[in-house]
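Throughout our pipeline, every protein is held as a single compact record rather than as scattered files. The record that follows is passed on verbatim for readers who wish to inspect the format:
___
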Amino acid sequence: MSAAVTLTALAAEAALGYPSLLLSRIGHPVTWLGALIGWLELRLNRRDASNLRRRLWGMLTILMVGAAAAAPAALLGLSLDAALDGPTRLVALALLAAPGLAQRSLYEHVSPVQAALAGGDVAKARSLVAQIVGRDTENLDETGVARAAVESLAESFNDAVVAPAFWLLVGGLPGLYLYKAVNTADSMIGHRDDRFEAFGWAAARADDLLNLVPARVAGLLICVSAGRGLSTMIRDAPKHASPNAGWPEAAMAGALGVRLGGPASYDGVAEARPWFGTGERPVGPQDVRAALRLYLRACAVLWILLGVVAWLL
């Protein structure tokens, strides 16, 4: 799909978000995918089956969910191609793509955390950050909350903005919604625990594959927008257990001059995660604010790059 459509979709999502009226009436495409994934998991992830069989059922789940997302998107795209042309077609495609992007939503989820921290209300900030991170938050202090918010912003810059835009650009509407299906499946079933390790294996590996290029682009965008952080990203990104999540996170640590990562607890189990960056001072509300400003600049750089590509082509 053209860079012009991708840029227009980003602009539409930034300006409009996802209308609350639509959300209340019909939900969101991601919630539809989540409902399908949950329904399939309950029926196919049998605890009495062998790990091999659970892996196979998990692979089938990803194929079905991917097809359920990509096929209608492809049909819509073909219908618009046949019925419309010129600017009308561009706008229609962009509006269909916009729900797969989340620039505005991400900012609106992280910004209240920063406001609560700045106002000294750590309890409220802790409650807010619990809505956007997977780690345990009940014992986080101000530094822990701030670090969690910045890490989530960095990682989600890829998952919610760069990767969907990338797959929209190279794969059109089907590529965008296939990515959203896989990414949603990974967040729901791609966990390493007794319930999901075998069944969610395909979801996790597919998500790793689809994010290989976008995650590195996201890290570079952060570094370019900050004018620093590249050496930190190159040095520290491979430390992450994920082949992708470390790139935007390490880039953000280097860009802000702080340390991110470190030990965290998930479902009551402590996890010894690596550190990213070399900053010595504690992460605080001012760093969440700085990260939000950097996030906006990185989004702007992405827009500019897409604009240049659209102009050249």
Summary: Residues 142-189 form the longest helix (48 residues). Strands lie at 260-261, 264-266, 269-271, 275-276.
